[in-house]
Predict the structure of tRNA(Ile)-lysidine synthetase.
Amino acid sequence: MAYLFSSLLRVYKGIKIADNPAESAFGIVVDHGLREESSQEASRVTQELKRLGLKAVIKPLNWREHRWHGIEPTTLPNVESVARTMRYQALGSTCRYLQARSLFFAHHQDDQYETVLMRLLSGHGYRGLQGIREANEIPECYELHGVYKSGLLDDQMQKHPFLSFRPPTREMKRLRYILKDDRAAEPWDRIKSYLSLGDTSTRFPGHLIRDLDPTVPYLTPLHSEDGGVTVYRPLLEFDKARLIATCEANGVRWFEDRTNTDPTLTTRNAIRQLTRVHTLPRALQKPSILALARRSRRRAQLEEAEAHRLLVRENVIQDFDPNAGTLLINVSTLWREEPLQMRRPFALARDEARKRSRRLLATMAIRKLIAFVTPDLHLPPLTNLDNAVDRLFPDLFGMHDLVPVAQPKAFSIAGVLFEPVLEVDSVMWLLSRAPYSSRQPLPERKLPGYLNYRAGVLRLEAEGDPQPSRHSHWRSWKTAKLWDGRFWIRVSACVAAKFHVLPFLPSSAKPFRMALPPRERDNFERILKHYAPGKVRYSLPALYSVEGSGDGEDSEQVMTLLALPTLGIHVPGLERWVKYEARYKNIDITLLGSAKRKGSKVPFLGHPGRPTGRQGPLQARGNQRNGGGRTSPSKWKPSTSQ
């Protein structure tokens, strides 16, 4: 891999990929520190990389915390998985520092063979036999902003963004030539404005819009994060012997970890020894296993594409609110049965034969919907969603499971609460963050520093100046932190500050309301009623200041609610010394576009009716029959369990 990049940059100097210059390639050498000679070996690899004309950096893994507790890393029963997590996090942090968006691994065909064979022996089905993917988001870095599915917006806000979304230079020259006659009549800058070439609002995949409704308070929708580091494996089609031969033919040293040949160390090593020494049956040999992986991958891709197509075609997602993290869906249109008089004689048998495949597609569709709201870093496996399929699609029961269909009831899975919203002819479901369990700690993010909120407010009132001091120095934005697996939140302050990000606690609600001026207080109540009714509001992130009460050992920490970042509401005067910003996690935006393209009438949460105007999937959800605002859950048509 290093030799190929060295040759590429040497032969094609100034090469551009998607009109972005590839200036250099860095070799990241990870020293696991699990062998005595690992440091010397890492140094030799670095020297070889520099000889090839590449920049190189060594990243040793830090086992200090384990050794501090008297645990030697090599004695850990899960040392492989722990080392893998630490390795990926070291790689991700280094890529963020280098502003690198692409990470290339030299996995080869033999690695693919061993991986699939190992999963086959473990009893995996076809979905687990897809093998190593050619490209995917970097794993194990889920809470590192700018590394995992995030960071693109910050990059595009810079004066000179690292990644350009402008049309390629060649295309711009061709466009100028085509419009040369028009340029004589109008300036080129005006022509570019017509083509939206300078409009940054349409560049970002996570740029969400909301239709304006005068009957409800307008709340600017949060951006959805995108970007991050992508892992590529371009050598999966080449076996190890060919790669070694390429290195030998070009005078490049080949380095190999000697522990890879110890069959007693890991399962992969044992399989590697087995395939090298013994002749396996034809069905377990490399060509057969690789063909099995290709078929499994193709089948899984087709199923994923079909589930995606169903969600978009049937406009299942009726509304998504990134500020509250809620999703309204209507699955009643999927596989709608024909009227009895229109059914053909073999329709029952046909539907029964299709139930198995439809149930699988329904399971995959539910998992895609859960991804919008769940706080979990990993989506649940398909086998764990059978109960959700039974509740959302009662018609997909098997013949032996036929029972009278009960009224839909609320349930939760993967941290997502499914609540039925009954309509005249169908049932819609509201997906929101499940209430926090009293047996588990609340999600919390701490930021260092100190802030005396009361003293600061008194000082501001005494000064009587509504504007920030020209002598105050704003610190740079802190790196955004992922809160509750859903919201990326960051702050900046012009004073030393200490913040905690916790849920909107009921005990803090009344003091926060009383701190707001009457007009803002009324607006706050309307926003909560419309966008976060009922218990949904208590799953919103809240920014608290932490202050010391008392002196010495008897001092206690007192938290004061300062702001609700996703709603843009804060105590008076906060903007003078604290700035905050919230964004929603990365989601599949393509699932939201069908309603607007079709111009369908999107139902709004809190009322079973439909608005009269054409609105997109992110419409403000006003237009209520009884005036503005959003009907509380108590006014929904509930099931008997509510």
Remarks:
- The chain has 18 helices and 20 strands.
